[in-house]
């Protein structure tokens, strides 16, 4: 494995060629620096898992050479995996006050807060991590205190943009510091590792201020109960919704744990200062329908979210119906379309009016458009463009845009080790990558036996056979067959399979009956044969043998 002990290299372990799971590594003279450590959410291609994260095995093996982890901003896809993966990395963390406040809550839930050293970086000051001379630059994004990271090394300057947009009216926080980017460009920049999410959209970015105005007008025009769903981390949007509610004479209730955590972190860091405390679900019971607005989690159709439970009428305290309105002040993350549409369909079935950004200006993206990228490239003027944070169609469009303005682009996928200096800027090696699924409190490899079995059960079902034998290995009584999700107990096919399986195990030679493991394996083969081809599926098959 190329450790580039006398130079600078870049390695994405997650977030390049996909949306979410951002985990980026730089290596300077054999010393590693991590930038962001986030989760991704399951899509239609991974129904067996809900929360995913990059496998950190590569850097975990080099943890002694890892000098730190820098968090660019407080979105889940950039810091949501820290509490799960830090025990394998065990390095100090550097973050802004808001990201640090969000992170401490997550670490507290994981009982790690006393073990992790978090350095809070305020403003755009320089800070050193190992041999890296680092600096934050303020950028606008859909979360407070988003930063681009400037990495100064003897081998050259790298601009790691993180997620950003050029918003002239961000409502909360400063505009992107273009003069700072111009000054970095004047220094000379070797490479810009850059957000690609919204590159396919032309024109300049929509402003958060325009959403605030539109939202205020829309909410004042509505009657009945209003629920607005948005990303919990979007403090500017929560602020705008709360102000719009106040103008319309409505009180605000927030629903969902992530929103409660967001409110606490935001107020801790000086945001939402002139917004009255939000109502709890119990306090809102006494508020008239026309005077209540709810901000609710679940904009991506997450099955256990508050909005999904309200839509399926399983929420313990909240029900929506005829005359009520749900506003989606968010975009659908690719892969979540089916889940979001199912929730919207359930709401509509209950008589709820569903409004999205197709109906009104209730959302703008937090990511740079193609024109925003052109502007930033014009200021930074890097020698090389390295598109990250996007699916392959975003990365290739980003590379084409960079080449169009005369900047050499390098396309990478997760696991590619890119030599930046000295010598040719090219992929020189690959690192092992993978995905881990959060399953309850466990981290499981997506390619491992547990999730592979779950995937097989999901699509092909499972057949369990159990039977008892005596000391000599002869069957006692009748075997039992269970095929949940595949065959009903009273299905004639179940009786046929049971009968054929009984006949097959009776015919197993004596020498295969003496050892339980050998007997079980032979019985499994017999069960597969008994299932035959009639089901046109290959279910997971297991046999329980009890020797009495």
UniProtKB/TrEMBL annotation:
Keyword Repressor: no
Database matches in PANTHER family: RIBONUCLEASE J
Superkingdom of this protein's organism: Bacteria
The protein, known as: Ribonuclease J
Taxonomic source organism: Brytella acorum
Entry GO MF terms: exonuclease activity; metal ion binding; RNA binding
Alphabetical list of Pfam families matching this protein: Lactamase_B_2, RMMBL, RNase_J_b_CASP, RNase_J_C
CDD domains the record matches: RNaseJ_MBL-fold (cd07714)
């Amino acid at each position: 494995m190329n450790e580039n002990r006398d130079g600078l290299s870049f390695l994405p372990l997650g977030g390049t060629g996909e949306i979410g799971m951002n985990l980026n590594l730089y290596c300077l003279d054999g010393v590693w620096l991590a930038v962001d450590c986030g989760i991704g959410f399951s899509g239609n291609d991974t129904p067996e898992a809900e929360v995913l994260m990059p496998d950190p095995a590569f850097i975990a093996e080099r943890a002694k050479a890892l000098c730190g982890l820098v968090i660019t901003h407080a979105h889940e896809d950039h810091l949501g995996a820290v509490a799960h993966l830090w025990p394998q990395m065990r390095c100090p963390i550097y973050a802004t006050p808001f990201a640090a406040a969000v992170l401490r809550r997550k670490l507290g839930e994981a009982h790690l807060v006393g073990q992790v050293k978090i350095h809070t970086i305020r403003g755009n000051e320089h800070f050193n991590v190992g041999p890296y001379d680092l600096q934050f630059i303020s950028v606008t994004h859909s979360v407070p205190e988003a930063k681009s990271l400037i990495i100064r090394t003897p081998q050259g300057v790298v601009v790691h943009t993180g997620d950003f947009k050029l918003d002239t009216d961000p409502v909360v926080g400063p505009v992107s510091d273009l003069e700072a980017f111009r000054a970095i460009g004047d220094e000379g920049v070797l490479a810009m590792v850059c957000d690609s999410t919204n590159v396919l959209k032309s024109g300049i970015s929509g402003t958060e201020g325009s959403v605030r105005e539109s939202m205020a007008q829309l909410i004042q025009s509505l009657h009945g109960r209003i629920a607005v769903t948005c990303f919990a981390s979007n403090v500017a949007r929560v602020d705008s919704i709360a102000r719009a509610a106040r103008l319309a004479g409505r009180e605000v209730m927030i629903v969902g744990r992530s929103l409660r955590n967001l409110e606490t972190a935001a107020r801790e860091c000086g945001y939402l200062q002139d917004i009255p405390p939000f109502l709890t679900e119990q306090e809102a019971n006494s508020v008239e329908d026309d005077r209540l607005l709810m901000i609710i989690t679940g904009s991506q159709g997450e099955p256990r979210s508050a909005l999904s439970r309200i839509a399926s009428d399983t929420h313990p305290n909240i029900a929506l119906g005829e005359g009520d309105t749900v506003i989606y002040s968010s975009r659908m993350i690719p892969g979540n379309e089916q889940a979001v549409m199912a929730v919207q369909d359930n709401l509509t079935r209950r008589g709820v009016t569903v409004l999205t950004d197709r109906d009104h200006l209730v959302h703008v993206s937090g990511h740079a458009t193609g024109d925003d990228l052109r502007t930033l490239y014009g200021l930074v003027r890097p020698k090389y463009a390295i598109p990250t944070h996007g699916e392959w169609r975003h990365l290739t469009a980003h590379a084409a845009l960079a080449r169009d303005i005369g900047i050499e682009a390098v396309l990478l996928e997760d696991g590619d080790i890119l030599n930046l200096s000295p010598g040719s800027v090219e992929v020189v090696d690959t690192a092992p990558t993978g995905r881990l699924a959060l399953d309850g409190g466990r981290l499981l490899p997506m390619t491992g036996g547990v999730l592979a079995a779950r995937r097989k059960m999901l699509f092909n079902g499972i057949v369990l056979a159990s039977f008892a034998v005596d000391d000599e290995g002869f069957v006692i009584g009748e075997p039992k067959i269970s095929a949940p999700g595949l065959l009903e107990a009273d299905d004639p096919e179940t009786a046929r399979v049971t009968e054929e399986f009984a006949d097959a195990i009776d015919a197993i030679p004596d020498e295969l009956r003496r050892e339980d493991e050998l007997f079980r394996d032979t019985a499994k083969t017999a069960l597969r044969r008994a299932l035959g081809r009639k089901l046109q599926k290959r279910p997971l098959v297991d046999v329980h043998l009890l020797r009495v």
